[in-house]
Amino acid sequence: MKYVSTRGNAPVLSFDDVLLAGLARDGGLYVPQSWPQFSADQIRAMRGLSYHEIAIEVMAPFVEGCLTRAELTELVVDTYARFTHPAVAPLKQLGRNQWVLELFHGPTIAFKDYALQLVGRLFDHVLKKRGQRVTIVGATSGDTGSAAIEACRDRDAIDIVILHPQGRTSEVQRRQMTSVLSANVRNLAVQGTFDDCQDMVKTLFNDHDFRDTYNLSAVNSINWARVMAQIVYYFASAVALGAPDVAMTFSVPTGNFGNVFAGFCARQMGLPVEKFIVGSNSNDILTRFFETGSMTADGVVPTLSPSMDIQVSSNFERLVFHYLGNDGMAVGRLMDEFRATGRMDMPQGAYGAMREMFEGHRYSDEETLAVMKVMRAQTGEMLDPHSAIGVAAGIKGHSYKSSTLIALATAHPAKFPDAVEKATGFRPPLPEHMADLFERPERFDVIANDLNSVRDYVATFAERVRT
Ligand SMILES: *Cc1c(COP(=O)(O)O)cnc(C)c1O
To answer: Least crowded by CB within 10 Å, which of 138, 158, 339, 375?
Structure first.
């Protein structure tokens, strides 16, 4: 399988190059040159397979030419054997034709584990084969940092340094990062804000000498391999509920559009999907887009669902590429327009086609809390604020349809205990594998909000294995 950039002006790459490259050189995102196809019979044959068996079927065509089936199998089995539910991504019934897909049984109890755990292993595998080593540097406001650290800890070919704003993450979020004492992991508590952290990371990446010397890399949400690994649970859940003989409607609480785009990939590969419902919080750029056909950037306001507090959705470009008929030049023009003016308008025909497949619904914090309360009372299901938005948007959009609804639950309620307690009066306990989180020793280095200090720190850390 080969990959092309959504801006049509970067080299065509193989899977392993795309994995390590992240963003394309023309500023675009990599997408597969063609979609692997699964016939109805092939999808039917997935019934009864385990999660990891379906993962191998779904991902094998994407890594063809880079990983043998035996190599892929080893990585996939190792990845999902560590998840705490035997089904890996279990389904729970909410009502007639309505289900929740729990994607929080990985090490950091949020859905990003489902992809990042595999991506960490893929990085290590490819780098070792090439005799290379990378330094992953990232900034986090809380959630992605822990998922990235858990994915990279103890890997031979990876060092990872994560910056977080000192005192500005929740205690659970901090401890999930700082209680990892692996030799290849460092946490920096920066005396500044999340934006300061992110600006310093960006500056380090833009310093090409520094970047090349230490082989800086990122595992951010535009990485194709993350999208690829997320396609698996769309197939697995749909097949468990009768696909391909029943069509599904998926509802997805959305930020950067990586998760729901993976569902769209599954559809392109042959999975029957009636609709994708996108759930937004008050940062509703996507819902506004699906209502109007124009994308307009706005400020970000903090909400109870921080992982969806985004200004623009980076993965949306992949969808635009598809609906503009894979015309990279046209995508480039729209993106330039958006960067220059803060607004872009989809051509009417393309917008009409998008509307047949997607709709969006937004929820304020008050509405989100109300949904959490009602769901707990009616079904016993405790939802975190992100998942509650997905469920609410799903039920709203699904009510008149004949397909089966699958609402994605993207975080464990114990990850957001304050909001859950406020909504339901019940404080959800941490799952067993994390129950001692508050007793675990922590390690982190406090550092000034100063680029040179951070640069020296990363250099010294990376140097220790480069003699
Ligand atoms: C990252 C995240 C999201 C948003 O997913 P995208 O792929 O960025 O759309 C939703 N919920 C939770 C809990 C997350 O961590």
So the answer is: 339
For the question of residue 396 being annotated catalytic, the response is no
| Residue 344: exposure state from Cβ atoms within 10 A (0-12, 13-18, ≥19) | buried
- Whether residue 373 lies inside any domain: the answer is yes
Residue 308 DSSP symbol: G
Provide the domain count of the chain: 1
Q: Which two tokens stand for residue 403?
A: 């397909």
First-residue to last-residue Cα distance in the chain: 37
**Cα torsion at 386, 392, 394, 398 (round to 10°)?**
180
Ligand 1 proximity of 146 Cβ (cutoff 6 Å): no
Domain assignment of residue 349, given as a range:
87-110+224-424
Residues ≥6 apart with Cβ < 8 Å to 119: 19, 151, 219, 223, 225, 226, 229
pLDDT score for 467: 59
Q: Which of 112, 128, 275, 396 is catalytic?
A: 112
Q: In the structure encoding, which two tokens stand for residue 124, read together?
A: 């290590």
Cβ of 226 closer than 6 Å to ligand 1, yes or no, is no
- CATH code of the domain covering residue 371: 3.40.50.1100
Instruction: Report yes or no on whether pTM surpasses 0.90.
Output: yes
